[in-house]
Amino acid sequence: MQIQELGEFGVIDLLTRTVVHQRSGPNHGTDFSFKLTVDNGDDTAAWQTGKATELFTTDTVVEGIHFTRETTPWHDLGWKCIASNVSDIAAMGGLPMYALITLGLPPETEVGDLEQLYQGMMEISNKHGVAIVGGDMVRSPIVFITVAITGIHADNPMLRSTARPGDQVAVTGYLGGSGGGLRLMLGSGPDSIMSREISEEAAEYLRSSHRRPQPAVAEGRILSSSGVATAMDVSDGLADDLSKLCRSSGLSARIFAEQVPVHPLLKQAFPDEYLDLALGGGEDYLLLFTAPPEVMARVIPQLPEGAAVVGEILEGEAGKVSVVESDGSERPGSGAGWDHFR
After folding, report:
1. Cα dihedral sign for 11, 80, 233, 152?
2. Strand order of the sheet with strand 45-49?
3. What gap in Å lies between CA 135 and CA 233, rounded to an integer?
4. Residues 170 and 296 sit within 8 Å (Cβ to Cβ)
5. CA distance 69 to 98
6. pLDDT band at residue 193, thresholds of 50, 70 and 90?
7. Per-residue DSSP letter, 71
8. Three-class SS of residue 221?
9. Least confident residue range of 9-13, 128-132, 163-167, 188-192
10. Lowest mean pLDDT: which of 37-51, 159-173, 251-265?
11. Residue 262, CA atoms < 13 Å, CB-side half-sphere
12. Which residue in 9, 199, 219, 290 is a FRET match for 235, CA 20 to 30 A apart?
């Protein structure tokens, strides 16, 4: 069997079972009261470090897979590499702290481009209090960047595995802007869907949404301090990410299409495709969370414009997500988001 037959999430499940079930040897962290509290399968791993819980995550971007130099300038690439990792920390309700950077670079890479990359990294790092403290560099035929980042939470982090039947499903802001921005930049030819005229305001909003996503650190802190126990970030698309959350919690979910928050500028640019972009576009890096209605009623008013309840958690097949259309019809929701091997 090839990994493309398993798909990305099947591969992750396989490797998770391997590392958890075959792990052996001394647990040195326990000797120093560093107790592992969140293992494989969530946005970050976590362990107790005395008074607090430390978070740890990593992410890699590869040229030609996650970005091209035509759609993502070096400065914005630096921003985005840090943003995706900060978003994982935000999904746990934590604060980001320290980062290690691994660079794979062709020898012909321009020094000025590398400087621009790090300017973007420093800009977002300084915004969120992240210190870049080291890393590694290797020769590579294409550009790749791996960021590993730590974070801290004063108490118990939010998880994917704690949803309950009857919970409402919500997001912390508008969806689909990043996917719309990518489609805009890839479809700029005279025969493309983007040959129609859109406003410069809409074009700038969409490009910015894709190139410079804003991790929801403050929103994650609000959720965690308000009694929300279940969350993750939206990196692969709302429907697929909700499916992951449901698989972790052993439940299913329903999304109500009319309640999915979409920015007016995305609707203006993609009047026929905006819902599909919101459900499956990915890389929005806002937060998806679930909570009982009474908690949700308290939390939503504290969040930015665009935050909305979009669905509900149900008993049923683990990971199954459906979308209820405005006419009451129901269709499968997951499977349209990003999968590396599909």
Report:
1. positive
2. 36-38, 45-49, 52-62, 144-153, 95-105, 131-139
3. 25
4. yes
5. 27
6. very low
7. T
8. helix
9. 188-192
10. 37-51
11. 28
12. 199
**16 and 135 in contact (C-beta within 8 Å)?**
no
Question: What pLDDT, on a 0 to 100 scale, did the predictor assign at position 102?
Answer: 93
Q: What is the pLDDT of residue 25?
A: 62
Indicate if the pLDDT at residue 340 is higher than 70: no
Q: What is the DSSP pairing of strand 95-105 with strand 144-153?
A: antiparallel
Quick check: helix, strand or coil at residue 339? coil
Q: How far apart are the first and last CA of the chain?
A: 14
Q: Of all residues in the chain, what percent are helix, strand and coil, respectively (each to 5)?
A: 40, 25, 35
Least confident stretch, 27-41, 108-122, 238-252:
27-41
Token digits of residue 87: 């978003």
DSSP state of 192: S
What structural domains and CATH numbers belong to the chain? Answer: 3-153 (3.30.1330.10), 168-332 (3.90.650.10)
- The identity of residue 271, as a single letter, is P
CA distance 16 to 162: 19
- Decide: helix, strand or coil at residue 196: coil
Give the pLDDT band (50/70/90) at residue 4: confident
Give the pLDDT confidence of 127-165 residue by residue, as tens digits.
Answer: 999 999 988 999 999 999 999 999 999 999 999 999 999
pTM of the full predicted structure? Answer: 0.87
Q: How far is CA 263 from CA 9, 64, 113, 203, in A?
A: 30, 28, 33, 13
Q: Alpha helix (H) ranges present in the chain?
A: 3-21, 28-31, 74-91, 111-128, 177-186, 200-211, 217-225, 238-249, 264-269, 274-280, 293-299
- Residues 329 and 137: their CA atoms lie apart, in Å, by 52
